[in-house]
């Protein structure tokens, strides 16, 4: 096959996702989820100005999208193109259209139809108490994995792109100042946003001029990667305990703005530079350490194709703010499309951002050499060709962007982990204070990261395992959705088939990794993987049991019969 | 922010109170809407966190005001006694949140 132009790839990909939105999501909305504009959503039913607030759908989409999109849809594709661009491209586009969109949209709908309850609570309702405990276990693992994997990602970037060191840490200062400007000095938000973004880019220029590298031989017997990881965990521990308005809130905001700027820059540059894809469609000469494409592709790219984490956001916050049920299609499905676009951008950057096939093979010389640093390198070449930015500066911009995304996830996840630990403590009857819970969270993640060697070089063993856990969560959510649909007597195959596919790939991948980890003698990850296999098998069993029960049981009536006047939205 | 051109001048020449009542037109309105949207984008994700923090603070304050009735000596009881009528309205929600079915104070029953 002739090497295609990346613009063709971008156009086909975008067209597929848009077609997915306009055609497939419409089908889902009409036939499967049967959205009803008359239905009184939880935001109206329980409106309290705090959790339940009817929100304009465009703003809600903005929140939803920025909460679900992070560094993961960049890392996954940047690793997975090692099998060639075609498999990654197909999995991202078809996955977004038939799985991620359906899943995010569906979990949002399911929660809206159940008083805005979270997927965890719904698994209690539809699968039973065991389902609920299962959910806690999976979430615990997922967050732990996120912490370790993202710390490795950031530290790799800081070493690979020393120009990003100043903007990465400087961005924290900018965020604190933004918070002060808003709450203390009550500046106009548009002015604050403009000043904040300009300051951030000023820092990028500064960092690019004065790159900071730790000495290569390290210090205190630690490699540079290890030192960065330690600093990152100290930071995330402190950041997660500060009052949110001081740091987390302004930083999330600046990042949200930055996400849109970044997507614009990448797609704008592709449009102007139209680089040729140099990577092979299907790589028939993969490096020796590359695992088999089936099933590993499907867990290497989780976010960007289907990700269980989105269900947590859909059912945790978005469902409580949805104004009309019919908005769920735009907010849920289009949120997944946004993330798919980010993943597609990462595929293009890592396959078209290099000069020749030989050069591409040189950088993708091992399964563990893929990842964000290559996205930054390739993306910088495209930015250089398309927008005329100097190569080094372009790399610093992309690296800073990726780090900021990952760092946001890191401290938000530390915070979440603390809550999960406190919740587990509560179940066990022990009250764990904030500081102790944070310490436990950080130390656990720290131990997991360093179980991969003091230089954290084994981070790539961690990544597929993270994807596996994420897919497991998605499988669990899809199971709940299927049970709901069976109970209502609706067409359920659009949900059941992806659920079967995802669960099959998850278990398959977990088993393959079990063998690898056993051979590598990585006992910590081996144990975690065993837990994943057990949990996945458990999900499968519970799924079959509850689906059979729903199949035999009486069917729930549809809206035209069941909806009382009280449950209807009265437009005033 | 009152816009430019003739419309803006007319607006600026009005007395202040009246000026604030009339929604601005043209680019100014656009600016205002963008600011509102951006503000929502800033505030909404953390609304719940703030509300919870505020409630915790309120609970602590309520305990200070009621400390004497709860058996904790309060050197500032003279000052907090004056606050009692103010706090009475919020009493019911508070004792429910604390896991008490009934108000802990003998003289003040709300349910």
Description of the structure:
The complex is a heterodimer of chains A (572) and B (111). Chain A is mainly α and 572 residues long. Chain A has one domain (6-556). Chain A has 22 helices and no strands. Chain A has helices spanning 6-32, 42-45, 57-68, 72-80, 85-112, 119-127, 129-160, 165-183, 189-209, 224-241, 248-273, 293-300, 309-321, 328-352, 357-363, 372-387, 391-428, 434-450, 459-488, 493-520, 523-552, 559-562. In chain A, helix 11 crosses helix 14. Chain A is globular and about 70 Å long. The N and C termini of chain A lie far apart (59 Å). The relative contact order of chain A is 0.17. The model of chain A has no long low-confidence stretch (mean pLDDT 90). Chain B has 111 residues and is mainly α. Among the domains of chain B are: 5-45, no CATH class; 66-97, no CATH class. Helix content of chain B is 65%, strand content 0%. Chain B contains 5 helices and no strands. Chain B has helices at 5-13, 16-21, 27-43, 47-65, 77-97. In chain B, helix 4 (47-65) crosses helix 5 (77-97). The termini of chain B are far apart. In chain B, 7% of the residues are buried. Chains A and B meet through helix 3, helix 9 and helix 11 of A and helix 3 and helix 4 of B.
Question: What structural category characterises the helix and strand content of chain B?
Answer: mainly alpha
Structural class of chain A: mainly alpha
Approximately how much beta-strand content do the residues of chain B carry? Answer: under 5%
Terminal-residue CA separation of chain A: 59 Å
Task: Count every beta strand of chain B, where a strand is a DSSP E run of 2 or more residues.
Answer: 0
**Uncertain spans of chain A, ≥5 residues at pLDDT below 50?**
none
Number of helical segments with 4 or more residues of chain B: 5
Helix percentage of chain A: over 70%
Query: SSE string of chain B, helix = H, strand = E?
Result: HHHHH
Overall average residue pLDDT of chain A: 90
- In helices, the fraction of residues of chain B equals 55-70%
- Tell me the distance between the termini of chain B: 50 Å
Q: What is the largest interface, and how many residues per chain?
A: A-B, 25 and 18 residues
The major β-sheet of chain B equals: none
Number of domains of chain A: 1
Give the quaternary arrangement of the chains.
heterodimer
Radius of gyration of chain A: 23 Å
How many alpha or pi helices of chain A?
22
Mass-distribution shape of chain B: elongated
Describe the largest sheet of chain A. none
Number of strands of chain A: 0
